[in-house]
Input
Amino acid sequence: MSLKLDFGLDNETFRHYLNGHAVVMHSHHYLALITKLAEELSDIGGPQLLKDVVEESMWAVLNDYVQKNGQTSPLQRCNVGREYYSVYGLGKMKVSGTERGGEVCLIRSHIDEGWIKKWGHHTKPVNHFTCGYIAAMFAVAFDKPAKSYRVTEAESMAVNGTEGTFIVTLS
Amino acid sequence: MTVMRDTVVKSLAKINIQGDENGLIPEYDVLVNLLPASLLNTFSERIMAAAPPDKKSTVADGLVRAAYECGYHTGCGIITSDVFNDVVLPMVTEGEKDILRGAFAAFTAWGWAKSGIVQLKEGERMVIRANDYYEADSGGEGLRAYMLRGLCQAFFDLTYADPYPDGMDTFVCHQTKGIEAGDPHGEFVVTRK
Output
C-alpha cells in the first residue's frame, strides 16, 4: 500500500483522526441499517441523498490527500481512492477507466457482506454508499468537482453473493 | 479495586484499526468500519431535513435504531474481547456495575463520546453525561445525538437485560440535554421501556 496513514488522537476529547480528518468506528449493523433507512425513505430521495452525502464527504477527504501529497496523475489519484476504501474497512475494489468513465469491480464489500450477514441476500442492489464513493474517487482522479460522474450499480454482491460491478459515466 | 476509568481509556485509545488484505476489519464478531465523522453527521442532518414533519420522528427513530443495533452487537463483541479481558476485567470487583463502567471507558476511548456514568440504579436507570461527542458538530435543530442514544441503550441492555442476544429493547434512552442545542454537556437517561 502506498497510502500514507497518519493516525492521530486528541488527548483531551479522545476523538480519533486519520490524515487530519475526524474518524469514528462503527459496524456493519450500522451501515446496513443506514442503507435500509435510505431505501425506506425512497419517496423523499433517500438513496440519492446517501450517495450525494458520501460523494461530497469523500471528495473532500480524497482531494485533501492528493493536494497535500502532490499526487497529480489520474492513476496515482485513483489509487488513493481505492486504497482509502480498504483502509476504511469498506472492502476491496478493482478500477478501470478513463476521464470519460469506467468500471469498478467490488471483490469484497463491507456493505454487501454486512447486509447478507444481517438479512441474507437481497433482490436488488443496495450499495448506494459505494456509488457515491466511486463518483468522488473518479472526480478527484480526473481533477473535477463533485457531481461530475454518474455511477450505477450494474451487478450487486448483495444479490448474487459474489461480486459487484459499478458503471461510471461522465455527467 | 474497581475499574479505573482513565487507565482503561488511555490503554484502549492507543489502538488504531484499519482494513486487512481484503479491505475488511473483522473485529468483535462484526465487520468494523472507520468513517469520517462529518459524513455520518451530514447524512443524519440531511435526511432529517428532507423528511416531512409527519415523518421526522420515524426518521430519528431509524437513526437511533441503527446505532442501537450496532452498539448491541458490537458492544457484546467488545466486552467479550481479548483486549477488554486484558485491560478491564482485572479491575472488575463490583460485577455488572464495573463491566458497565469499563464499557463506557471503551466508549470514550474509541471516540464515540467523552462520557461517563453520573447516576446508576442497577438494572433500573442510568444517567450518562457527555462532555464531547461528534454528533454535537452536526447542523440542524434541537437534540440530535441519535448515535449516543442508541449506544447508551445498547450498553444498558447488554449489562442488565436478558443475556445476549435475548435482551434487546428492554430499556430505552432519552436525550435530555445536548451541546448541539446550547447546553454545556449532553445528558442521556436510560430507563426501563
Q: What stands out?
A: Chain A touches chain B through 54 residues (CB under 8 Å).
